[in-house]
Structure of Aldo/keto reductase family oxidoreductase:
Amino acid sequence: METRALGDTGQESTVLTFGSIALNWLEQAGANQLVELVLDHGVNHFDVAPTYGDAELKLGPKLRQYREEVFLGCKTQEREYEGAARKIDRSLNRLGIDTIDLYQIHGLEYEEELDTITADGGALDAIREAKDDGKIDHIGLTSHGDPELILDAIDRIDDLETVMFPLNPVVAGKDGDEYDYEAVLERCEAEGIGTLGIKAFAKGSWPPTDELAEADRPYANWYEPVDTPEGIRERFDFAAAQGLDTVVSPGDPKLVAMVLDAASRSEGMDEARQRALIEEARHDDSPVPEQLHH
């Protein structure tokens, strides 16, 4: 599988990152098999979070077995020092490892959160301290929120090394600053900040719960995904063609094999097809940013 430099981190990540939330829906034996399948396809970048149910615990056994082959991203939704420091240690303990390669401020949504995170006694102090102690190697940020807020965070966090944000034809076709994640991508490329794309496989928001109960949704995603091999291949190729360093796989384990296949066979996408996909999606509901944040 193709690899790309993850900004200036020194990491060469596969163009597909394994979204390890998928493991939460599986028993341990199934989780082990899925990790083996992902590794068999050459994927070397995994992403997990303490809010993803038991995903950290389910990832642990195979992560420890293949630790040298996996660049691991983890996250925290804590905004203050004490909570973030506890979460770092908790994740290390649940994963059963000594160091997390990339530790990300998770799901930034509001300016006030950024103020808290970056203030004295904020989460960033705990993350930097953990880096000094060798518990983490790199500092990142994830957001489904306003691109302007992400750009502000880049301004205010001078040691930020990666950003994870949504990018797909639906978002690319929307007008307005609140959808301008391309500006984030350009800024990251200019500053050597690694880029990870999420929601690449989002088709749209789920129907209202009075039409389709949450329990009846066929996939364990926050949004309704594309779910055919052709659709997944197009969405992967589109995301990779935007210049993202790596694209995160969707959260439902039923989709992972198709995504692995698409990433393994990817031959890029020309600009004409990219524009056509954007036009096709232009009138779809964007699953960002109204969609449930996680």
The first strand starts at residue 3 and ends at 5. The mean pLDDT is 94. The chain has one domain: 3-285.
